[in-house]
UniProtKB/TrEMBL annotation:
Name of the molecule in the record: Carboxypeptidase G2
Alphabetical list of InterPro entries matching this protein: Bact_exopeptidase_dim_dom, Pept_M20_glutamate_carboxypep, Peptidase_M20, Peptidase_M20_dimer, Peptidase_M20A
Native organism: Thermotoga neapolitana (strain ATCC 49049 / DSM 4359 / NBRC 107923 / NS-E)
Domain Peptidase M20 dimerisation: 160-256
One Gene Ontology MF term: carboxypeptidase activity
Length: 353
């Protein structure tokens, strides 16, 4: 397998949010063919290529094939390499990780065997709404999970991840002429107080962050707005942080007596909890090949949480180290490619059944 050729082809294949799941699966079917050549039985699910080798329980390797970039992005800035740095849409998050996954499997299977499963989904950047059922099914059949999201810029691995909560806050007031504020109830004013109130919770807990990212309100410049809403991106790790947030929202009140405020909250991703025993195994595998591993807690969520929430020993960040994800400056450190592949091969040897 010529991994650089696969890497270039994958990065130059647009798989953004403006494409259907079916189209993204079609465009990445060449990866399913690679897995079949490695001996896997491959199934095409609604939003994922799923490959099996052997029998459960499986060591499951996961990665996503979609990016945040629209159709045509790879034509504007195709895959390129400058010294030890590769660039292109999704080069780090996480097409480089998928290539590491495939290369590590090829090298491992040349000299060893194991019960393995691979899940490559195409809706991770959307929150995995369609592939969720597949992940939950596979997690119930797994002994371990290795996730190939990007390693951090300096090569750090990921031992845990925060969960993600979506919160919508709605304010309702009363229309009136903008020149007579006393005749209306301004919903934007009401929602503004709530933004300040909820933002003040930042710092109450080490892992709880509450960030208002989208605000809507008003229709005409001379009309007091009667409706306004704000979306909050919320990250958390401990259950007590989630409970604190819920209790705060249940006690929410209005500033103006005629205004009303309501909310809708949804857990988009649960946290990936750290498994100290397995992290110790990963650390041991890394040290045996001369690495000095560093583990961090990631602020972003990931599909690995489907496994860790079931108590499946899991590790993330096995993908290509890099930075500036989700931007036009995204890059990957391909000088660390061999080290990452060697780590995965050595780890598979330690945990195979």
């Amino acid at each position: 397998m010529k991994w650089m050729e696969i890497y270039e082809k994958l990065v130059n294949t647009d798989t953004g949010p403006d494409l259907s799941m079916e189209e993204k699966l079609n465009r990445t079917s060449f990866l399913a063919e690679i897995l079949e050549k490695l001996g896997f039985r491959v199934e095409r699910r609604k939003a994922a290529h799923v490959a099996f080798l052997g029998e459960p329980p499986y060591v499951t390797l996961i990665g996503h094939l979609d990016t945040v970039f629209p159709e045509g992005e790879s034509r504007k800035r195709p895959f390129s390499v400058d010294g030890s740095i590769a660039r292109g849409p999704g080069v780090c998050d996480m097409k480089g990780g998928v290539v590491i996954l495939l290369e590590a499997l090829e090298r491992f299977l040349k000299e060893d065997e194991a019960n393995l499963c691979v899940v490559l989904n195409v809706d991770e950047e959307l929150g995995s709404p369609v592939s969720r059922d597949t992940f939950e099914e596979i997690a119930a059949m797994s002994s371990h999970c290795l996730s190939f999201e990007p390693g951090r810029e300096n090569g750090e691995l990921i031992s845990s991840r925060k969960g993600i909560i979506s919160l919508w806050l709605f304010a309702h007031g009363k229309k009136g002429h903008a020149s007579r504020p006393d005749e209306g109830v301004n919903a934007i004013t009401e929602i503004s107080f709530k933004v300040l109130e909820l933002s003040s919770l930042n710092g109450k807990f080490p892992n709880l962050t509450i960030n208002p990212t989208v605000v809507r309100g008003g229709a005409e410049s001379n009309v007091t707005p009667d409706k306004a809403e704000v979306y909050f991106d919320i990250r958390y790790y401990e259950d007590k942080e989630f409970e604190f947030l819920k209790k705060t929202l249940e006690k929410i009140s209005t500033v103006h007596p005629e205004a009303t405020v309501s909310y809708r909250m949804k857990i988009r991703r649960s946290p990936m909890k750290e498994d100290p025993a397995f992290i110790s195994t990963v650390k041991e595998a890394a040290e045996e090949i001369g690495m000095k591993p560093v583990f961090v807690r990631a602020t972003g969520g990931g599909d690995v949480a489907f496994f860790s929430q079931r108590g499946i020993p899991s590790v993330d960040g096995l993908g290509i180290p890099g930075g500036r994800m989700h931007s036009e400056e995204e890059y990957a450190r391909i000088n660390l490619f061999e080290e990452r592949v060697n780590l995965v091969v050595h780890l598979l040897k330690k945990i195979r059944r």
